[in-house]
Amino acid sequence: MRLGLVIDLDTCVGCHACATACKEWNTSAITAPLSDYDPYGREPSGVWFNRVRHYEIGEYPNNKTINFPMSCMHCENAECVTVCPTGASYKRPEDGIVLVDQDKCMGCNYCSWACPYGARELDRESGTMKKCTLCVDRIYDESLPEEERQPACVLACPAHARLFGDLEDAQSAVSRVVRERGGYALMPELNYQPTNQYLPPRTRPAIPTHDLGRGSLARKVKEWVNRVVER
Amino acid sequence: MNPSLAVIFLTLFSGSGFGLMAMIAVINDLPIDGGLSPTRTAVLVGVALLLVTIGMISSTAHLANPKNAWRAFTRWRTSWLAREGVFAVLFYPLAAADLGWTFFQNTAHGAVALLLTNAAAAIGLITIFCQGMIYACLRTIRQWHTPLVPANFFVLGLAVGATIAASARLLSGGPATALIAIAVTLFLAAAILKAIYYFWIGRPTGTTLQTATGFNRGKVRLLDQGHTFGTFLTHEFSNQISARAAQRFKIAVYLVGFATPAAILILGLHAPLGAWALVAPLAALTGIGIERYLFFVEAQHVVNLYHGRTPAAMPMMPASLKTRADVTQRPLVPSYEKR
Ligand code: SF4
Ligand code: SF4
Ligand code: SF4
């Protein structure tokens, strides 16, 4: 098994629901808590396993906003694990999930240097490295109803832009969608062989505006009045 | 990368200590300029041990959870950091035995003394190599992913070691010509290697925001980092320095770190310097400390791409500020660490 996530960049609306759901679940899950520093102050910061960034691709008028969630990719060739001197970081052979044993970590930050995707964050309160657990404490929990045995971020996403499954099984829903939609891995040239895949946005031409009429006289008067009244 | 003092001191002082140990072995093996007397061997081995200890203590200062530090030796099969720890710890009994043997048996050139000196020196050199590989094995940081890194660590450690040995000889009197020639040659080699490195890191890298996001065909621009204030990632990876400041620091490395100690040692050949000879190793340590600071602050982790960092631009900053050198010197989030 090779469990991971597939992120659909076409439907992601950039609402950060996955990031907050992740924070909510994991702040009381196996590597809890996810410490916050100055949460209500002027300089709020803290540990997150999942961060959403926003990019613009292309140039006007053929540009597009892309919302870009990133969490641990649970890489096949996870150098964050091989560089760890204490053995705190490990990759589970049975499902490929990369975890940090909080009882062994000495907080040297070395694994975070080795991760190209910014997936690891040091918790200053506990002094240990923390990262996405692929919600290992949800996906196998038999006390949950079957459809809820999924990562918190996947369940929270209102746009269904996050899919969870076994990417080794060619017949699984995630493998199929990666095949059909041309899913890809980030920074393939570094050869970390990330498990998580990204589905590219579908490209549609921009809606043309040049053929629109210039508007009637009444409309021009209305616009003029609007401008004047605003002042 | 965050130029944390703990890591700068670790590589600077322990590298110098191991380099000194290696020089002691070379001086007594050949012997150079008549070799070292037992007492002087013992004193210099003591200095080497002291330098390594300063480095090791400051390295634990950078651990967030030092109570688990003992576990750091367990993964030596895969981790260069673990290997460094193992060899650094092996160094202590050998160097201590060497110190004790030369001092109490009052011999520096007997078989046992030489064996101990050489064994400690070899372990020290292996430790420097492991230290270099800690950085050189990271494919995420292009400025470190090069054999030039361990090569630089070697030559700088040996240069400081040779400077300490040569200035000690100037202090205590006696022939010093060959010692000083070795030190000056090492500084020359260091200057050439560092020049190669500084030119090499100027080359553009293969990884860009395009490959990082997968949008290989078009322009990609960061709109929003998604957080209001700094994160662990910006704190740890976002440090950088303006090209102008970097150039000034590099000149300082060459002047303070290489030229000054070499000049003082050469001067010592022709005029009695007395305690002023000690300025040579101090200048070397200061200059190489600046070199180590640059080594960290110039290194750019690939994750900076996701924060919109390209070598030429700082995003989320008004264009009017971008040209001001003092602004770009500061990390994205200067006060994250203070609280
Ligand atoms: S994304 Fe980073 S932390 Fe996760 S497995 Fe890959 S290298 Fe390790
Ligand atoms: S911070 Fe912890 S998990 Fe990461 S390399 Fe160091 S000991 Fe290993
Ligand atoms: S899988 Fe779980 S831990 Fe990972 S990003 Fe999603 S919610 Fe967070």
Write the SSE topology.
The complex is a heterodimer of chains A (231) and B (339).
Chain A (H helix, E strand, L loop, with lengths): L2 E6 L8 H10 L9 E2 L7 E2 L4 E7 L6 E7 L8 H5 L5 E3 L6 E3 L9 H5 L5 E4 L4 E4 L4 H4 L12 H5 L5 E5 L6 H9 L15 E3 L17 H14 L1
Parallel strand pairs in A: 1-11
Antiparallel strand pairs in A: 1-10, 2-3, 4-5, 6-7, 8-9
Chain B lengths: L4 H25 L8 H23 L19 H25 L6 H26 L11 H25 L4 H24 L8 H5 L6 E5 L7 H6 L5 H28 L8 H19 L5 H4 L12 H4 L2 H5 L10
Helix pairs in contact in B: 1-2, 1-4, 1-5, 1-10, 2-3, 3-4, 4-5, 5-6, 5-9, 5-10, 6-9, 9-10
The structure holds iron/sulfur cluster (SF4) (3 copies).
Can you describe what's shown?
The complex is a heterodimer of chains A (231) and B (339). Chain A has 7 helices and 11 strands. Chain A is of the alpha+beta class and 231 residues long. Chain A has one domain (3-199): Alpha-Beta Plaits (2-Layer Sandwich). In chain A, strands 10-1-11 form a 3-stranded mixed β-sheet. The longest helix of chain A has 14 residues, at 217-230. The model of chain A has no long low-confidence stretch (mean pLDDT 94). Chain B is 65% helix and 1% strand. Chain B has 13 helices and 1 strand; from the N terminus they run αααααααβαααααα. Chain B is globular and about 70 Å long. Chain B starts with a helix and ends in a 10-residue tail after the last helix. The relative contact order of chain B is 0.13. Residues 312-339 of chain B have low confidence and may be disordered. At the A-B interface, strand 4, strand 5, helix 2 and helix 3 of A face helix 3, helix 7, strand 1 and helix 8 of B. One iron/sulfur cluster is lined by residues 84, 86, 88-89, 100, 105-111, 129 of chain A. One iron/sulfur cluster (SF4) binds at residues 22, 25-26, 49-50, 71, 132-135, 151-153 of chain A.
